[in-house]
Amino acid sequence: MATEASVSSPGRPQIPNPVQRDYYWVRSFVAGGVAGCCAKTTIAPLDRVKILLQAHSPHYKHLGVFATLRAVPKKEGFLGLYKGNGAMMVRIFPYGAIQFMAFDNYKKFLSKRLGISGHIHRLMAGSMAGMTAVIFTYPLDVVRARLAFQVTGDHRYTGIANAFQTIYLKEGGFKGFYRGLTPTIIGMAPYAGFSFFTFGTLKSLGLAHAPELLGRPSLDNPDVLVLKPHVNLLCGGIAGAIAQTISYPLDVARRRMQLGSALPDSEKCSTLTKTLKHVYSQYGVKKGLYRGLSLNYIRCIPSQAVAFTTYEFMKQVLHLN
Questions:
Q1: Single pTM value for the model
Q2: Consecutive sets of 10 residues in the chain, 321 residues long: mean pLDDT of each?
Q3: What DSSP string describes 231-253?
């Protein structure tokens, strides 16, 4: 996910409204969290399939993306496509909220305190915001991945609480919840950075060169221009596609390290370097490091589209412009 900057239209100077500033951080937190939840629920079935393919589940390893989408409901029922989504919602609300809020604060810090501006400060702020959100919510992501990797009839965990308890007791306490954190942070830096950078750049260019065609006044503040919904969808999809292409091999390594003892070759996936070498030597580039990338392209467009559009709507509803 990435956030968007407001562009003020010419007119009378804006007068801060003390009422609108009240609980600003709470309203911003809620806006980001709701946007994240809507986006992830939209693509939950594709997320489940991505995890199954990335980790080469023995139940579906011979199938492709669309064949797996058809096979999961047959084997596990329709709700099998949403397995692990409950844990995802618990994680994604604070994740989205922290990421959006952190981006705004890092951008201000880089601009005002360090004097870094232009496109580079958007790239840096996005990377830092993504890493901050990951660190705070990573244990929930590990649990969600474990639950999503399970197949009906071959369960290791009975639910979210049981997964937390089992990982804590059998995988070294709190250390077990941060397995794969290093590749996640390394992968998140370019992913979040380029998401924010690409979307922000496209938005700035669009509103600067074609404000009447691509923009409209914000519902809560007519002096602020925002992108029209369909333009938001397009810009978000492009940003997600570019960011995913750059960071995808690290995402594959992260998932395999997160799944840990759930994989038969877990001893070969103890570090980032070992995991990348093992996946490359065992499966190659296309079927290993980039396995499931086509699914990610299908995921990122609706995900980013829904995230940006929802966040834009929530900002207006909660008077954040």
A1: 0.73
A2: 45 49 83 92 85 78 82 87 80 91 89 83 93 90 79 74 86 82 83 90 92 92 91 89 86 76 70 83 84 79 84 88 79
A3: HHHHHHHHHHHHHHHHHHHHHHH
